[in-house]
Amino acid sequence: MTGDEHAWFVDPKVKAATYMNSDSMVCVGRPEVVVRHDVLDCYSVSHHHEGNGVIQRNKAIFGWGDLRKELDDTLEYIRETSTEDFTNLIVSSNHNDHLTQWLARGERGVTPENALLYHELMVKVLRSAERHETGVSTINPFEAYAEEYFGPEEVSIEFLSPRKGYMIHDIDVSQHGHNGPNGVRGSLTNLSKIGIKTVIGHSHSPGIMGGCWQVGTSSRYDLEYLKGPSSWLQAHCVIHANGKRQMLPIIDGKWRR
Q: Where are the domains of the chain?
């Protein structure tokens, strides 16, 4: 399980230590699956920037406001860091889900550079709607975009549903950590009490409480929204073949000495 990746803002040293070097975790450990948290940042359409004319203008001028480019760059990052030996498991994460929220807010927050893509994705979502006994479901627009981007069997990728769970041994790896039990905000504390072992992300700060383990981040430490003291740490979690977990911090681009 990777610390939250945020492809546009991933730390190159973490990327190398995890995937790219001959001594990387992937090359040494040869995993069957890689569980990715917050791989899509959605900075280009962040709801935090709505109504802020200065940031919106600067994003447009400097190329940070183009959603199609962010989606393409993110999926290219997944392609670059994948091998045929493992399957990518994409956890339903709050930053990934910002894409769905952006569509749901309607056209009021859509900038001209994203207008065409907004309507392309909205058509896919609306056409996918299905009625069920308990309501209506639609596709995940990030998943739909990825299916068109990658050719058949080009990259092994699966999008996880937090409602179904995904077990590795007796550990559920489908929870990101932003949603807690019974509709409350998620945390290491409340997700440690749900009765099963989990590995989560979200806070960018690694931690262990009971059966819940929380990874850190894969991003740079100087992100725009980080202010004040921080407990962030670049750290992944590995589940070994015997079902035991191990937290692996990355310090100065190295995960082992």
A: 7-249
Cβ–Cβ under 8 Å, residues 202 and 175: no
pLDDT at 225: 82
SS3 160: coil
How does the average pLDDT of the chain come out, rounded?
Answer: 94
Q: Is the dihedral of CA 111, 116, 117, 123 positive or negative?
A: positive
**E-assigned strands of 163-221?**
167-168, 171-172, 197-200, 207-209, 212-214
Helix (H) or strand (E) holding 89: strand 87-90
CB-based contact 249:216 (threshold 8 Å): yes
Amino acid, single-letter form, for residue 166? Y
Torsion 31-4-243-18 (CA) sign: positive
Q: How far is CA 133 from CA 4, 33, 124, 164, 183, in A?
A: 35, 33, 22, 17, 21
Contact 158, 231 (CB under 8 A): no
Give the model's confidence band at 2: pLDDT under 50 very low, under 70 low, under 90 confident, else very high: very high
pTM confidence score: 0.93
Name the band, by pLDDT with cuts 50, 70 and 90, for residue 154: confident
